[in-house]
Amino acid sequence: MLEARGLTRRFGEVVAVDDVSFEVPAGAVTGFVGGNGAGKTTTMRMLTGVLAVHAGEVRWGDRPATAADRRRFGYMPEERGLYPKQPVLDQLVHLARLRGDDAGRARQEVLALLERFGLADRAREQVQKLSLGNQQRVQVVAALVPRPAVLVLDEPFSGLDPAAVDAMADVLREHARDGVPVLFSSHQLDLVDRLCDRLVVMARGRVAARGTTTELRESGALRYRLTLCDDAGWVREAAGVRVVDLAGPDAVVEVLEPGAEQRLLVDAVARGPVRHFGRVVPQLSEVYREVTA
Ligand SMILES: Nc1ncnc2c1ncn2[C@@H]1O[C@H](COP(=O)(O)OP(=O)(O)OP(=O)(O)O)[C@@H](O)[C@H]1O
């Protein structure tokens, strides 16, 4: 498990990251979200040792992460760092050999990853000759090649087309399944919703919320949807609930007192047929808006 414990970083007067703590457990994909300037990149750079911390510590397992641990961290920075003039295959094989593989095995593995990301026929081209999206794919492969013990990826999905997004999502899930803690930042909340088991939400340099996606969805207001056959206008007068949305026979209410939703249902049945009654679980995007507001 990778852990940020009380991480703090200033740039001059600006406290970019302020006492940030969260866990990136093995076996799960953790999404890292927050508005522009919220402190995600700064936190990821501290996690991977690219940037010094001003307070707090990064822990790997049950102890502070060492330089040797960090060499096994796979990091894909926001500012991409491949050599533009070198052919794709050569740089990736070089990376693979750094971990001690022989040339044949390194080549085989890199080619398999390139194939997976639809880049097999581009292997001999210079990085700079590829489109931006394909350069991005090569960056992703570069982060995976060293078989990292943990993956920290800064906006790995930005600029990818839908096929590459799917390939990337599969790769992240597989790594998590194999026990690699995976943390990635993104502004694409639908993708985060689809892919993540856990979420850390940053706002103004601090952690605004964290937990499993289920916990976060259920941490918000308790809401129910009631759909009748006739107009649901009377729900406005019902005790213990507040109407959030009302359209003809359909009402969404927030429960203000324990059990008020059950009384609402009893009232509704007494008035006529009920077509639907159930808990409304918010989208992560709604939770995100609430906690960062
Ligand atoms: N090298 C730096 N020098 C000065 N200020 C910096 C530096 N790096 C980051 N900051 C400031 O730290 C704050 C957090 O920035 P950071 O890049 O970590 O946010 P972010 O959440 O990754 O944003 P984005 O989603 O826009 O990439 C911002 O106010 C930013 O201007």
UniProtKB/TrEMBL annotation:
An example molecular function term from Gene Ontology annotations: ATP binding
Matching InterPro entries: AAA+_ATPase, ABC_transporter-like_ATP-bd, ABC_transporter-like_CS, DrrA1/2-like_C, P-loop_NTPase
Cell division is among the record's keywords: no
A Pfam family: ABC_tran
Record keywords, A-Z: ATP-binding, Nucleotide-binding, Transport
Sequence ranges assigned to domain ABC transporter in this UniProt record: 2-229
Entry-linked PANTHER family: ABC TRANSPORTER, ATP-BINDING PROTEIN (PTHR43335:SF4)
Family from the record: Belongs to the ABC transporter superfamily.
This protein's name: ABC-2 type transport system ATP-binding protein
Species of origin: Nocardioides perillae
